[in-house]
Amino acid sequence: MRNVSGDHAALLFRFFIPYALILLGSLWALWFAYGKTSAVVENESVKSTLAALNQIQEAFDGRLAEIETIARQLSSESKIQSFQFVNEPFGGTRPYQLWDLEKSLFNYRLVNHFIVDYYVAYKNSGMILSPRKVYADKQYYNLQLHYEGMKYEDWRHQLFGEYHYKTYLPERSIMYERKTYSVVTYMQSFGLKGGGGVIAVMLDNKQIQNMLRKLTPGQGGFAYIADPNGNIISSIGLDQRPEILKALPLDEGDAHIRLTGQEMLVTRAVSPLSGWSFVSAQPKQLVLEKVYEIKRVTMAVFLSALLLGLALAVYFADRSSRPILRILRLLPKPPSDSKRSSSKHSVEFIGYTVSALIENHDSLKKRLAEQIPLLRSVFMDRLLKGGYPSHREIDAAMEHSQLNLRGSQYAVAMIRIRGYEGPFVKDMLKELDIIKIKLQDCLHALYGETILSHDLGENRLALVFAGSAGDAASSGFEPSLRSWIQEVYERLIEIADTGLCIAVGGSRSQVTELYRSFGEAQFVLHHAEWNRHRPIQFYADMEPATFTYYYPADEELRLIQLVKSGNLNETRQLLEQIKEKNGREGPLPLAVERLLAHELCGTLMKCCPHQRPDHGRSEAMGAVHQALDPHSSPSQAMNAVCRAIIQLCMDYEESKKSRNDRLTKLLLDYIEEHFRELDLSLSVLAREAQTSEAYASYFFKEQTGWNFSDYVEHLRMNEAKQQLSHTDRPVSDIAAAVGYLSLNTFSRAFKRANGISATEYRRISRGGSAADLKK
C-alpha cells in the first residue's frame, strides 16, 4: 500500500494554520499586557524606594552635620586646644586642669540618641577625657572601651597614626562600659599633626540600621550606606558578604543585576552634600510578586486555550482528510514520471497501478526469494540483540524469512575458531569465510532447521537451540543441551583444523529473551579461561564475580577541577582515595580494572587544554596509548594514567604562577609609566591587561596589597613632594604634572594624604627646622 504520511501531514498542516494564527495572536496580546503591568509595578517600586532613600539621605546628612558641628565646637574650645601641649598630665597644677577640662565637657548623648558617647584623646600626654571620665589611654581601652578583635596598639595607631579630617570608620562591635554596642566611629584631629589630639564620637549603628530597615522587605533584600571612597559604613541584610557589592551599579538611579542566584532591583541615591551613597537592593521576585501572579493566571488560560485549540484542530483536520486518506492508502507510490495533479486522473492512475502490479508480480516474487538469506541474517541479528519486543513481531519476521523456531526452551551458543586472532587482514577474513561456510553447511546437513546459525563476523558464529523441557527421554532441556553441544563440537572439530571454542549461555523459556542468553555466551567467550582440555564452557558453570568499580561522576568532575586549578596535593590524595576504595574488598577483576583505567584515560583527555594542543598532550597521549595497549597489564595502565594526570597538574600549577608574575609586572610597569596622565583609570589598566575591571582590581589587590586608586595616589604624592621640595614651579603646574585635573582636587588629596597643604609642605621642607620636617 502507498505511504501517505506526507499527504496526511500536509492536510493536517493546512487545517491547523488558522488555529495557530489565532492562538499566537492571543499569546502576543497576553504577553503585551503582562509586560506593561510588570513595567508599571517596577517603576512604582523604584519611585517609592528612591523617595525613601532620599528621605533617609536627608535625615542622615542632618545627623552627620550635627556630629561634625559637635566635633568642630569641641576642637575649637581653648581648654581642649591648650592641653595638647601637656607632656606630664599629673605634674604641678595639671590634675586640677584635667578636672576642670572634664567638667567642661558636655554630655551630648543626653540630647542626641545617635551618640553612644565621645572622648578626646591626646597623643603627648596619653590621656583620654570624656564626660564623667578621665583615664590614661591604656586604662581607658582596657576598662571602658574595647573594639572587638583589635589590640590596644592597633587602636592607638588608628587614633594617632594619621591626621583625621571628618573620618568615618565602618560599623564595628565594641564593649563600652561593660555593654556591647555596634558603632560607627567619627574622628576629627585637631592641633599639630605630630602631637595634637583626636575627637572620637561613637555613633549608635542600631539607630542607622533602623533607618535602613524601611528599605528592605526581607527575604534576600539588603541596604547599606557607603562613603565617597566606597567603604561600607553601615549595612543591613548583607550577612557578611561584602564581596557581592562589586556587582552593584555605580551610577545613581536603578538597575537590574543578578546576585547569589536571583535577580535584584537595585536603587542608589547619592548625597549632594557629603557624596555618600545610599543603596537598597530588593529581590525582583518579591517586588513583582503580583505581576508574576498575573503571569501565572495568564499562562494557565493560554495553555488551556492552546490545548483545546490543538485538540479541535486535530479532530476537524482528521475528520476532513479521512475519506481522502482511505483512498490514498490503497494506492502504491506513483512513479516519478507520473503527474497526477487531482482526482481527475484517479481512474487512470488506479488502472495503471493495478496493471503494473500484475505485470511485476512474478519478478517481485523472484527477487523476494533472492533476499531470503539477507532477511534471515537481519532477523537473526535483531533477535540476538533483543530487537523484537513481542512474539507477534517475531512470528511475522520468521514468516518473511521462512524460518521456523519453535520450542519451550531456548539457548544460544557462540563458536570461536581458534588460530585466527586480530588484527584481521583481507586474506585471513577470506579464509575464515570459507571455514564458516563449511561449518554452516555441515550443521544444515546434520540438523536442518533444528539449529539456526548466524555469522557474527571475523572468527565467530552464533547457534540458536530450541527444544522442550521433555527432550531426551524427559531428562530436561539442560542435560539434553549439553549432550547436543558436545555432539555438535565433535562433528565440527573435524572441519576446523585449528580448533574451536564454544561458549554457551543459559536457557530461556521465552524467545524474546534470547538476547540474554546471547549476552551470557558473549560474556563467557570473553572472560573464561580457554585451553585444549576445556573447549566448551557454560555460563551456569562460571563462578560469580563482582564487575563494578568506584568512580562516580562527581569524583571525576572534582578531579578535573583540581588538575586544572593546579592543586597538586589534593589531586594526589583523590587518586589515592580512588585506588583505595577500588581495592578495599580485594583486587578487581582484570577486565574491570582495565575499564577503570580506560575511564581515567577519558578524564585525562578532558583535563588537557584545548587552546594549546602541544601543552601537556605528549605525556597524556603516551599514557593513553599505554593504557589502550592490550599487551600491558591493567595495573600498569592505571599507574601510567595516574602519573600523566599528576604531571599535567604540575604543568597547570607552573603555568598559573608564571602567568600571574607576568601580569603583575605588566600592571606595575604600566602604572609607573603612566601615573602622571590625567586619564589613567582602572578601565584603562584593565584594557591594557586585556581583562575585566573587576578582575584587574581584584588581581592588583591580591598581588600587591594596594588598592589601585591608593597606589596611584601614593605615586602621585611622592612625585608632588619631590617637586615641591626641589623646584619653584607653581602648585597648579605641579598638580597638572602629576595627573590631577584641577588644583582643588590636588589640594584636597594632598592634605588628606599628608595632613597639611602643599604650600605649607613646601615652606616646611625648605625653611623649617628638623622638628618641623618630622611633623
Topology summary:
Layout (H helix, E strand, L loop, with lengths): L4 H72 L1 H5 L11 H11 L10 E8 L4 E4 L2 E4 H7 L1 E3 L4 H9 L6 E10 L2 E12 L6 E8 H8 L9 E5 L5 E5 L16 E7 L2 E9 L6 E7 H4 L1 H41 L16 H14 L1 H10 L1 H13 L6 H11 L7 E9 L8 H22 L3 E5 L4 E8 L3 H4 L2 H16 L7 E5 L9 H14 L8 E3 L14 H12 L3 H15 L7 H18 L9 H12 L5 H41 L7 H8 L3 H12 L3 H19 L4 H7 L5 H12 L3 H10 L2 H5 L1
Parallel strand pairs: 16-17
Antiparallel strand pairs: 1-2, 1-7, 2-3, 4-5, 5-6, 6-7, 8-9, 8-12, 10-11, 11-12, 13-15, 13-16, 14-15
Report on the architecture of this protein:
- It is a single chain.
- This protein starts with a helix and ends with a helix.
- The model is unreliable at 337-350 and 769-775 (pLDDT under 50).
- Helix 17 (553-564) packs across helix 19 and helix 18 (568-582) runs antiparallel to helix 21 (634-674).
- With 775 residues, the chain is α+β, with helices and mostly antiparallel strands.
- A seven-stranded antiparallel sheet has the order 3-2-1-7-6-5-4, with helices on both faces.
